[in-house]
Amino acid sequence: MSLSSATSDLPARRKLRLDPRSAALIEASVIPLAALLASALIFSLFLTLLGKDPIRFFALVWTGGVASSFSFQNTLQRAAPLILTGLAFAVPARIGMTLLGAEGALVLGGLASALVAIPMVLAGWPVWLGLPIMALAAMAVGGVWMGIAGWLRHYRGVNETISSLLLTYIAVAIMNFLVEGVFRDPGSTNKASTMPLGPDWRIGDMPGTSVHWGLAAGVIIAVLLWVLMERTTFGFAARIAGGNLRAAQAQGLAVGKLAVASCAIAGACAGLAGFFEVTAVHGQANASLAAQYGFTGILVAFLARQNPLAVVPVALLFGALGASGGLIQRRMDMPDATMLVLQGIIFVTLLVSETLYGRLPFLSTEQAGDRT
Amino acid sequence: MTMTSLSRRSLLKSGAAALAASALPLGAARAQDGITIGAIYVGPRDDFGWNQSHAAAMDILREVPGVSVVEEENVPETDAVAKSMESMINLDGANLILATSFGYYNPFVLDVAAKYPEVQLRHCAPLWNPDTDPKNAGSYFSYLNQAHYVNGVAAGLSSASGKLGFIAAKPVQTVLSNCNSFLLGARSVNPNATVQVIFTGSWSMPVREAEATNALIDADCDVISCHVDSPKVVIETAEARGVKSCGHNADQRALAPNGFITGAESKWSTTYKIYAEALMSGETVPNLIAGGYHNDMVMNTPFGAGATPEAITAAGAAIEALKGGKPIYVGPLKDNTGKLVIEGEMDNYAPELEKMNYLLDGVIGSTT
Known about the structure:
By secondary structure, chain A is mostly helical. Chain A has helices spanning 3-6, 20-49, 54-67, 69-94, 102-122, 127-156, 160-180, 214-231, 233-243, 245-250, 255-282, 293-303, 308-332, 337-353, 365-371.
């Protein structure tokens, strides 16, 4: 897509002298930013039609999401699970798979970590040993769950979008079944939950902040996955398979293993998000694990154009929208759905902006030549 | 923490030089000017149910001079609610937070209460433990089963068949008590009345609620009541099928102009006014408020077109009796498996009733 725009060497008066890599980078930054700006304008129009002040709206987003230390930490905390679930969509997307199942992997990962913790808590194991075991259990269960979708896709020809989405509903049902059944804590009368892990097993906040460790984990894993996708043979093979499956097969690449591995990595990311929901937020597993982070992550990855590094700032943007959403309700007397409207406009604008790749006049020789 | 946020805002407004001078007087002025009360709902505030019942009370509170009200809807039971509470405290200067959904309490209300000891937090469910929980937290709840008893009285005298239907969310104590009280109310006026119950398994599952309503009507029930978060679908389905209905949580009269009898509502405004007055006069905000008809914490929706004149008279008398302390559960009562569950007369606030895990004889259905 971006290659056609940047590699041409035709002389043209208004053409910028850019090497293909920089041109692609500029394009990948300018188009999403322009799309964001366009959605802000469209949304302003929407607000004006409703008789609300757009400037006040964006000022409140600033106040609620960025302006003070409290607001910024609010944004960071809300971004933490979205980084991990965003990665869970971004990684399989590089191999051409649309995996919608992060929500299910998150729920089951969180459940798994809460369940393996119970014997360790009861036996009085040290927390430093227990927490990594819980994290591994969450990642393993999430990984296997999404790995199923990858396996079904490659070896049985089942569409991974459908299967992963349906697996989410099964995951939530399994969680509810276990939490309301055998693993229900008898003390949880009106809201079924597993046994509370107790304050010692809460992973707590990063020093000097009120933001839990899931944020740091998300950023580190985003960097690791970027290295994996951009700087290793695995990532290279995955991108080839994503670009042209037949060609990848003809080259003898193990496409099936790549597909399953990508999905498993995605599931592990989402499972880890579930681990942090249990250890940093809830202290137990219950129906609140299904909080739609998995689905918002799809939007995050989409806006980040499936680049693991870009997932981080985009998750922060969505965190800020979430953090200021309450303030908008309170100060502007607007319904909760306001922020969903904004998210929807961003999503549609981004979809449209996809068509602009390779067609930006100042990066495209042909069009620049035509205009002069 | 209120002071800190005030300082921060003054800093932005008037610059660092004015900070030391302005912070204290501003804080003092706020205490005289009035108070800010924040309410957080788990769903939309116009849901014709649980959230609306609180939002309606907040609307009444809004009219009280000196009280500012801030509200947030659709806040999930995750760390999002902790952040919403903190945002109300930090950015709106809230003095009292009303957390209205069950799952908000542990750990979120507890954590925020510990972090902001000068802010009051009250949670709508009997969960506050005076021995272990922060002193600036607390609970309030109503014995809505008293209003369901009145529903039953009115339904018993408005039904032709004596077969009543009840859509229940989950087989937990509050729901079972409402269903059993509905039966006892109906039996107080029609000893042959029965209540057929269907559990949906979820607090909010409109499709299954509609199916259950249709199923109960197909089983010849001619009055439908319920305990789900939002009874909108149940009431509308009953109305569309031409049968009568009794409401729950909020005022649903407008949804069933032909068949609505009355509804069981909590009167949260009573509690909220007590909180507001305590805050404004600088007194201690009560940690625990609970009650029913005797202290004006529950009410019944004004009668709709479905209520017969006899029903209106009898329901009015039942309300007066409850205000006087007339017990609802009078033994011997058996559950619907034949086991004796209540021997003597139970006070309407008896702790034994909190352990209710059965359906009384006369209720058709099973908790499992």
